[in-house]
Target: DNA-binding transcriptional regulator, MarR family
Amino acid sequence: MNTAPRDAVDDLVDAVRRGGGGEDVLGAKSLSYRLRRVAHQLELAMRRELSAHGIELWELEMLAALKRAPGHRLTPGQVMTAVELTSGSVTHRITRLEARGWVRRDKDPDDRRSVLVSLTAEGKRQALASFELKTEIEREIAKALDPETIDVVNDALRRVSHHLKGKDEQ
Model:
């Protein structure tokens, strides 16, 4: 049962149907198209709001990973895992955050060969201010759905995420 007005994805699926696409794939195509579009729209909204406050989305994600960590510090490898980036990307981003005064690199006292990336006081302040802004964006998005639907969508997306991660690990 569709309760929302038609959107551009419905038009795309109709075009696939007219082109001979089988009914067995139309639901999957519709889901895939819609997930990509919603993710893109969400990212654009977040980037727009955050950049107006002097922070990029990737910066917030890095600060958030550090803020959640015990002692607000991680090794670069742990940052890489937390934000799902390559080591080269993480190194570059840490350097940029360090230049802004939001993080610092320290020798790991338990392993002098290793480095720990830590939030500075300014990084913590920036993170907290940005979290509030991001939460407001998320609340606005959630207004489109009732709480029960949010739970159902979250469960479904969690299953899709686990399925895709399982494919990546094969």
